Amino acid sequence: MKFCYFKTCAVLMMTSACLLSMQSCKPKTAQSAATGDAAKSFVAPGKYDEFYNVVSGGFNGQIGIYGIPSGRLFRIVPVFSQSPESGYGFSEETKPMLNTSHGFVPWDDLHHIALSQTKGEHDGRWAFANGNNTPRLARIDLTTFRTSEILEIPNSAGNHASPFITENSEYIVAATRFSVPLDDQNGDVPINTYKQHFKGSISFVAINPASGEMGIAFQIRTPGVNFDLSRAGKGKSHGWFFFSCYNSEKANTLLEVNASQKDKDFVMAVNWKKAEEYVKSGKAKKQAVKYAHNVYDEKTHTAISTVKNEVLVLDPADCPGMLYLIPCPKSPHGTDVDPTGEYIVASGKLAASIPVFSYTKIQKAIADKAFDGEYDGIPVIKYEAALHGEVTKPGLGPLHTEFDGKGNAYTSMFVSSEIVKWSINDLKVLDRVPTYYSIGHLSVPGGPTAKPHGKYMIAYNKITKDRYLPTGPELTQSAQLYDISGEKMKLLLDFPTTGEPHYAEALPASMLKDKQKKIFKIEENAHAYVAKGEGQAKVERKGNQVHVWMTAIRSHLTPDNIEGVKLGDEVFFHITNLEQDWDVPHGFAIKGANNAEILIMPGETQTLKWVADRTGIFPFYCTDFCSALHQEMSGYLRVSPVASNVALHFSTGSNKPAVTDEGSTTTGSPGAGTK
Ligand code: K7E
Ligand code: CUA
Q1: What residue spans carry the region label Disordered (predicted)?
Q2: For a tag site, which of 11, 484, 619, 645 has the least CB within 10 Å?
């Protein structure tokens, strides 16, 4: 790791080694600037935070829910990854959530959050997130903080420019990071035929306004560039989407060098209202594909995975006026639209300035045909014709920009490790603060909406180094909270995060806190194996499967003695939590289970599969300390040899001897029940 030192006011005094290597630079002010202003981030014991902060977990495939301004962690929501804490992805009911066309994929790399919007403002209904590796989108219900739905994206490889959302949640988008041969073609081609065979793809995923359910409305086939990030237009630019693309060189090796050859890459402007018209008029062609769509049903407490076989595809060659390219220096990363919808800020990682484009000028350039030729048949708008202006000398390695709704923009600078505040109107730099270290995304609550909630800004840093007590080679990830209510930005707090945070969105606590689901009503439980009372508890054999309808209530499991299971049997423990009080989950675990515990919420049924791999006695127990007699909340399962004639038998509270298939009782000595 190379370091360079600079004063925060003299950004240009960077060594060229630092710039070339794109490594982080350590601000010289590191210690002195980190005094903080603890009072402003202090939330007294028993008091609530002002904002819920929904934070991507990066390569842990989860989402973290934090309070702002305290930085306290409230919940980890498993999305693309199995969770041993809740049993998500381990229980029989939730395994289908992780089904894909590749089979069961229990992990992904989650980068971006999009909160649902109505009229350009947060509406507090759903959070959406992208799976970057095996391309997927997820929807999280903000009344349960659980993953409700996962949709796989075909014709994609690396779902990075995703899931950005339109101002009325009409669509979220999913644009491929890696161009690849299309799914219905033989992809077994030489890699050096990239230019010929590799294509890009942007999916428009429609959101059902009532249920939130996702469906791929159409895809747009694009040149074989790499899509990085995106934002929807809003207000006057509603109906448009803006995507940053790099690798306009279409390089397929040593991208570090070969995809940075050209002076400019592109921002792709997509007129999606026009695309909708083309779909309506029959311009879209059907393509055979295969992708999974997984939906969790809160009534049956079970997910169903459906495999779909078709997408509608628009070819830009058939759809004039749908796509335009705007030249953008150099390897743009974030593309962000200001609250008014007029300005589009593109952050070129290797650029010395930040170009700000004007929606009005883009429209005029299109009307005037102010083009600089074409790229793969798509008109390229003249840079100057689209440009509002450039922020000059902002810092090094601009990545992402957020807004405060007061005419200011805040851009994260990866290389120079700082946040730069500038004025959208005159493009003047107003303030800069160091970050510790190498900031990636930044987030202002409501920052990507038409009405930012302002007040705070959170930096999500890529490198932690000396900020916390060290923990061996792997250090915690780190976020920092800044006060942006005044003219100058002020650092308030460092707080660690789980996974690698990329983007996050925060919304006022008042939008969510009073509509949280507290229990599932037991009378509405439509699970196929529910036991709505202890009287319905039972054990049944179907071939080598044994199904246990078990109930859990403080402080016993029913049944708690089970005999007659044979070696090799697959035992399905279907456990219904009979509690109807908030905050009383029960857990379930059994020795030797090849998965995890399951945690069952009040009124819910969940299933743990367990295979009897040896004979003997196996204790099972509740894993969540639920009452003073939690330790007593347990039971025993007996496994007998295959040839044994111990009859299937279960009980709670009675202590009768086991029965053989012939009806006589066994005495319990080893080998009992055999003749
Ligand atoms: Cu949104 Cu982190 Cu994937 Cu920038 S990316 S940092
Ligand atoms: Cu139920 Cu511990």
Answers
A1: 654-675
A2: 619
Average pLDDT over residues 310-327: 98
CATH T-level fold of 52-515 = Methylamine Dehydrogenase; Chain H (2.130.10)
Q: Quick check: CB of 630 below 6 Å from ligand 2?
A: yes
* Selected residue with higher pLDDT from 255 and 270: 270
Q: Please state, in angstroms and rounded to a whole number, the distance separating the CA atoms of residues 375 and 223.
A: 8
Residue 2 pLDDT level (bands cut at 50, 70, 90): very low
**What residue spans define the domains of the chain?**
52-515, 522-674
Residue 492 contacts residue 536 (beta carbons within 8 Å) = no
Determine which residue's CA is closest to atom 1 belonging to ligand 2: 586
Domains 52-515 and 522-674 share a fold: no
- What distance in Å separates the CA atoms of residue 156 and residue 261, rounded to the nearest whole number? 25
What pLDDT score was predicted for residue 35? Answer: 57
Q: How far apart are the first and last CA of the chain?
A: 73
Of 51-65, 244-258, 535-549, 657-671, the range with the lowest mean pLDDT is 657-671
State residue 675's pLDDT score.
Answer: 28
Two structure tokens written together for 27: 């601000």
On the question of pLDDT at 330 being above 90, the answer is no
CA of 531 to the centre of ligand 2 (A): 17
Instruction: Using DSSP, state whether 398 is helix, strand or coil.
Output: strand
Residue 587, strand partner residues = 599
**pTM exceeds cut of 0.90:** yes
Please give the distance, rounded to the nearest whole angstrom, from the Cα atom of residue 111 to the centre of ligand 1.
6
Residue 297 structure tokens: 């049903």
| Ligand 2 contact via 624 beta carbon (within 6 Å) | yes
Give the Cα separation of 392 and 1 in Å (integer).
28
Q: In this predicted model, what pLDDT tens digit does every residue of 462-497 receive, in sequence order?
A: 999 999 999 999 999 999 999 999 999 999 999 999
- Position in ligand 2 atom list of the atom nearest CA 624: 2
pLDDT, the chain, mean: 93
Which ligand has the nearest atom to the CA of 162? 1
- Which of 227, 502, 505 to mutate to test ligand 1, by most ligand atoms within 8 A of the CB atom? 502
Q: Whose CA is nearest to atom 5 of ligand 1?
A: 502
Tokens found for residue 280: 């309506």
Contact at 8 Å (CB) between 127 and 140?
yes
Residues 339 and 449: their CA atoms lie apart, in Å, by 6
Contacts of 286 (CB under 8 A, 6+ apart): 310, 311, 312, 313
Per-residue confidence (pLDDT) for residue 101, from 0 to 100: 98
Q: Give every CB contact of residue 255 below 8 A, 6+ residues apart in sequence.
A: 247
Ligand 1 pocket member 467 (CB < 6 A) = no
Identify the residue whose C-alpha is closest to ligand 1 atom 3: 111
Domain 522-674: top CATH class: mainly beta
